[in-house]
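We emphasize that the prediction below concerns an isolated chain of 243 residues; any contacts that depend on oligomerization or on bound cofactors are therefore not represented. The input was used exactly as deposited, without trimming of termini.
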Amino acid sequence: MTSQELASPLSDEAIASILERDCGIYVSRRLMDWLPHGADSASGPAHLPRRALINTFGAGGSCVSMVVEEYASPEPDRDEEARLKGREEAILLSAHTAEQLRAITEQFLGYARRNHDTPLGDLADILQLRRTHMRYRWAAIVRTIDELIEKLRDALEQEVLDHGVGYSSQDSFDTASRLKRIISGNLARKVSENLMENRDLAGLAGLWQMGIDVPWAQVSGERRVARLSLPSYPFARKSLSFA
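Result of the prediction step, given as a token string:
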């Protein structure tokens, strides 16, 4: 579905068996383009999203079916893009361990280099609101993808990811725990409100790196965020044996 192509997973005998039934099903005999169907709408002809039915059958008679549909990116709001162009954004990365934080930083460096036209605001919103924030943290305030690439590269080259990033060390974790106890209740709300009012992303990112909850949803507002296919979490590769 991602490549918008249809493969032919069936043998010639299976295809012939299906075609003999004259059941109205078209079977792909080779790799071919997956063209969308058209439909009439109030604004004129429109393409329907590609959909696929996936079936699995168990030996005991169980059956599971799932329908998947491709994601169609909404038309970009040019006025909104022009207004937000060059605005500072907070890019947040986190992981369970320092090694995994380094791995995910390398993944995002490669992603940024391959996808130079990625909307920076959408990337920031996804990392702020749709990712789980874990103990080892890295943040950068940037205005462009080029600036993000530079900061990701510097973080890897300077090995800052291995030395007390956020509250990754036990000392900084204890300090963050004490700070969280101090900055709580009304004080925490006042600090956040002050930083939000001035859109002090550096201050907010600093609090976040120390393990303090930051209401990132208030930073992004109600702007519609496009979906992006971002690198997934670099899980540890372990081999387990069963006695």
